[in-house]
Amino acid sequence: MSFDLSTGKADFLGDTLRSKSGGHRLKRGFLKFAILELLIEQPRHGYEIIKELEQRYAGTYRPSAGSVYPNLQLLEEDNSLTSQEAEGKKIYTITEQGRKQLEEHRQHQADKQIPLPSNSDTDQSHIPEIKQSTSALIETIRYVAHFGTPNQIRELKKILDATSRQLHALLAREEGEL
């Protein structure tokens, strides 16, 4: 998922982390540094990293195992982290070199990236309900896109564009304006 800091827009389609609007965005190496950020807090295994990132991004971003595990392997190969087997799982720990690399990245990217959200930034109890509604909506969109007439598909696009604008406007409003 990518964020355009100038508009507040996000691209939720996959792990590409590229912004389509051309504004500030999370860079290609984001996942590598997000992993290091998590490992500064505590040692973790790969699946734990995936679940923690999903939780911290409120379910809007979930890296695939196919992106996390190769990053872990590369980080281990360049001595940014170490691993050891525990209860059949490979537990990763950040090294001093990894800490230095992360600190350099933080200094270089301070004005360009959204920090990894902390585990306690917001109440996320609503996320399962939102995910369920989103899944139902996506299924309906796919159905209309696949089986709809050309006029229905044009109307679908108008509805989606208007909904996107409304959601961005919602985020731009102050809490008291809601």
Give an overview of the whole structure.
- This protein is mainly alpha-helical and 178 residues long.
- The chain is 53% helix and 11% strand.
- The protein has six helices and five strands.
- It has helices at residues 30-41, 46-56, 65-77, 96-109, 127-147, 150-172, and strands at residues 2-4, 9-11, 44-45, 81-86, 89-94.
- The strands form two sheets. Strands 3-5-4 form a three-stranded antiparallel β-sheet.
- A hairpin with a 4-residue loop joins β1 (2-4) and β2 (9-11).
- α1 (30-41) crosses α4 and α2 (46-56) packs across α3.
- The longest helix has 23 residues, at 150-172.
- The protein is elongated and about 60 Å long.
- Mean pLDDT is 78; it is low at 1-26.
Short description:
With 178 residues, the protein is mostly helical. It is built from 6 helices and 5 strands.
